[in-house]
Amino acid sequence: MASIRSLRALDWLNFFLANVQTGFGPFIASYLTSNKWTQGEIGLALSVGTATAMLSQVPAGALIDALRNKKAAGAMAIVAIAVCALLLAASPTLLSVLAAEIFHGFASCMLTPAIAAISFALVGRHALGNRLGRNARFASIGSAVAAALMGAFGEYSSARAVFWLTAALTIPALVALSMIEHTGPVTQGGAGAGAGEPEERESISELLRDKRVLVFAACIALFHLSNAAMLNLAAGEVTTHMSDNVQLVIAACIIVPQMVVAALSPWVGRSAERWGRRPLLLFGFAALPVRALLFAGVSSPYLLVPVQAFDGISAAVFGVMLPLIAADVAGGKGHYNLCIGLFGLTAGIGATLSTLVAGFIADRFGNTVSFMGLAAAGALAVLLVWAALPETREQAQPGTPGETATPMET
């Protein structure tokens, strides 16, 4: 059983990692613009980072699976992100920025499965839903705090100061990681296995043939096809129809979902263990078409802010369910983090298609039609969950701990 100290340290690790990752969000574009970069150059740099992140999802997951010491893997990724932030702050040249984006893309892809694996190691299979809910809560709070703090640094100091701050915030993240105690061998198995009966390691081809993996990957792609472009389109609407308070409204559209995620995520984790995954997925995915239709029908830019609460609902459910379902289908088969990487890759593909398709439709037919198309993609995601996705939660057999012994070090 993990100590209270380790669990609290994991809370703070998620908080500070969200702080750090926030520094690589929209602040990069603002910083590069202040250094006389053209929009084409900025787009190239950000695209390189996005492409690296997409291509790194599966290799990074496989690497985390192969490494026994997940804490060391997480520490290396955090140090790499610190170096990237320092590189951006010290030298905003094309070569430096491209190098920072590439290394940040791979390091970020290592962090997500590493944190999931550490969480798995600390609490075991049956408490994982609760733990992932807490992870999401502290990450969302960290993102909101960091956005406000970095915005203030950028406004009252300089755009460069954001990246010095980002590098500095990796220090408390590393301290929090170091406070997580080694738990020894951890059980990763399915809920129904008997104690001391390790499950046979599954081949990657068997994992890719698993109906649950394939259907949920398709659901993820549709989710992001519907979700990724919504806020960008809404921000364009705000900018077009408002002359004052534009940045405040856009900031509120970002902060409101984070508040909802912080409030809702622990409940999602507990409910997923109590009711199963499918009811929660239907609840979270149903928020997508509702949000898109409201965006299409809302006339006042100020009303976009409360509509963004639906983004918090879907984000809370998705953020908890992705690593939880990966544990259901691959946790005892030696490919938990690889499975997270596969799901991350499909998310990236869906998000990329979303921005391309939504932008194309908006340019030719208007934002309202584009929102309707995003709503249709969201409705398809809900339909696919309802019609084709099996329940992945396994019931523990009476008299067994429900855990099998697959060693994993933290």
From TrEMBL:
Record-level GO cellular component terms: membrane
Keyword Transmembrane: yes
Membrane topology label: Multi-pass membrane protein
Annotated keywords: Membrane, Transmembrane, Transmembrane helix
Gene Ontology MF: a single term: transmembrane transporter activity
Every Major facilitator superfamily (MFS) profile domain range: 1-393
InterPro entries referenced in this protein's UniProt entry, alphabetically: MFS (IPR011701), MFS_dom (IPR020846), MFS_trans_sf (IPR036259), Sugar_transporter_CS (IPR005829)
Pfam families: MFS_1
Top-rank taxon, per record: Bacteria
Record's subcellular location: Membrane
Segments crossing the lipid bilayer: 12-32, 44-64, 76-99, 105-124, 136-156, 162-180, 213-234, 246-268, 280-303, 309-326, 338-362, 368-389
SUPFAM superfamilies, alphabetized: MFS general substrate transporter (SSF103473)
Name of the protein described by the UniProt record: MFS transporter
Organism: Trinickia fusca
Native organism taxonomy: Bacteria, Pseudomonadati, Pseudomonadota, Betaproteobacteria, Burkholderiales
